[in-house]
Specification:
Layout: H1 20-41, H2 45-73, H3 78-100, H4 106-142, H5 146-160
């Protein structure tokens, strides 16, 4: 297995939605962009496929987690947001199908992920953050101590991202 150290893209605070657990998940998209860049430079077609498989799993689990938080927060635009997520999952599956039929999708997928990171996360995701932050703060204020609060959020993370 090759080790790729050079970063093509670096996480930038302008990508942040201000919710640490979500930001940490979004940072994974930057990792995928960098992995695809390295795979392209080293002509590592197996790495591209591994990224596609991981990206497919990531989108389903991350979107489910995010949607669950939006629902709990009572975010009024959750249904349209879910539709955007479903469309993106279909796009990733389409890239996987194209790859499996022998097409080099690396550069186009990198571009798509960069666009997603900037457009969706900075705009669509930032729309729900106030509602989710308010819900998280309410949960924190109703807990007896910090460990309970961390336990609730950790439970949510574990529900969607089992290690």
């Amino acid at each position: 297995m090759r080790s790729y150290k050079m970063a093509f893209w670096v996480w930038n605070s302008t990508f942040s939605v201000g919710i640490e657990v979500i930001d940490n998940q979004h940072k994974r998209i930057v990792d995928y962009i960098n992995e695809l860049d390295a795979a392209s430079r080293y002509n590592d077609i197996q790495k591209v496929y591994n990224v596609l498989l991981n990206l497919s799993d990531y989108t389903v689990s991350h979107f489910s987690f995010e949607e669950s938080l939006m629902e709990q927060a009572g975010y009024p635009m959750v249904e349209p947001h879910k539709q955007v997520h479903k469309a993106f999952i279909r796009r990733i599956e389409f890239y996987k199908e194209r790859y499996e039929s022998g097409e080099d999708v690396t550069k186009q997928l990198m571009s798509e992920l960069q666009i997603w990171l900037v457009n969706h996360i900075q705009h669509d995701d930032s729309d729900y953050t106030d509602d989710v932050k308010m819900m998280l703060n309410k949960k924190a204020n109703t807990m007896d101590d910090k460990n309970d609060k961390k336990g609730w959020l950790s439970g949510m993370v574990n529900k969607f991202f089992k290690n």
